[in-house]
UniProtKB/TrEMBL annotation:
This is Esterase. InterPro entries: AB_hydrolase_fold (IPR029058), Esterase-like (IPR000801), Mycobacterial_A85_antigen (IPR050583). The lineage of its organism: Bacteria, Thermotogati, Deinococcota, Deinococci, Deinococcales. It comes from Deinococcus humi.
Length: 273
């Protein structure tokens, strides 16, 4: 197996060079197709190495044809635009496990799920899958800068939670986290306790939130909004200072269309090493 050209569909919306590696899994994760987007200069500058951004919910990142929410992040178009500014990176899309998405992205088990249901608690296993299985396929076969300083996680909602968790628990691997529209309420505030008890936090973090994240459920919208602002304050107390960028959009919704708008700013901040 190896990286192969992306199998585009007739209605695909991919810009640039996208590769795929089929059948990637481990003992805890069903096989899935990894995606790798290459910067515009990759083919013409064979000696150049690039930072890497790992995107969760990878089926929604590059191609609207594969997105389960109809729209996509537009990471390929955004990175093409940033390349024209002199900021280039390889982008990796890691598809979620469909009905196991919550389990994979949650660091703790949800008390409301019966024992036979995968109701969270798979976050550390998911990071191990990324570090021990996915990252070697990227670093061995593509021209990366593999150190933590040049390795970033980014995701939204539960993907934002696992990005934060990765930065806190594996700073030896990840030096940046994009925490977009985080659903802190979904894990009963576990992230707050982990941040409070963590040693000084290394790396850079983008944290953002919208005012309409709850899809017209006022209590949930308020929970998203309040929790994100409380996390901002806690991270500043932990000393992140200028290594933290916080952005709040009162009109922002909980969809790829909103994350697509904020993605250029997030990547500019996270990749400015």
């Amino acid at each position: 197996m190896s990286w192969q050209p992306y199998a585009a569909q007739p209605d695909s919306t991919v810009t640039g060079t996208l590769l795929q590696w089929e059948g990637v899994g481990d003992a805890n994760h069903a096989a899935r197709t990894m995606l790798a987007w290459l910067p515009p200069s990759y083919a013409s500058q064979p000696e150049k190495r690039y930072p890497v951004v790992y995107f969760h919910d990878g089926q929604n990142v590059f191609d609207a044809a594969t997105s389960y929410n109809v729209s996509e992040w537009g990471a390929d178009e955004t990175l093409t635009m940033l390349a024209a500014e002199g900021l280039e990176a390889i982008a990796i899309g890691i598809p979620n496990g469909n009905e196991r998405r919550y389990h994979e992205y949650s660091p703790v088990r949800h008390p409301g799920f019966p024992p036979e249901v995968p109701g969270g608690g798979g976050g550390d296993d998911y990071l191990a899958f990324l570090i021990e299985t996915v990252k070697p396929l990227v670093d061995t076969h593509l021209r990366t800068l593999p150190d933590a300083k040049h390795t970033t996680l980014i995701g939204s909602s539960m993907g934002g939670l696992i990005s934060l968790h990765g930065l806190l628990t594996r700073p030896d691997v990840f030096g940046g986290a994009g925490v977009m529209s985080p659903a802190f309420w979904a894990c009963a505030g576990e992230a707050f306790g982990r941040v409070r008890s963590s040693p000084p936090i290394r790396g850079r973090m983008w944290l953002d939130i919208g005012g309409r994240e709850g899809n017209d459920h006022p209590e949930q919208e308020q929970a998203y909004w309040n929790d994100a602002h409380a996390m901002r304050d806690l991270l500043l107390e932990k000393g992140l200072g200028e290594r933290l960028h916080f952005q709040a959009d009162p009109e922002g919704i909980h969809r790829e269309t909103a994350w697509k708008v904020r993605l250029p700013g997030a990547l500019r901040f996270l990749l400015q090493n």
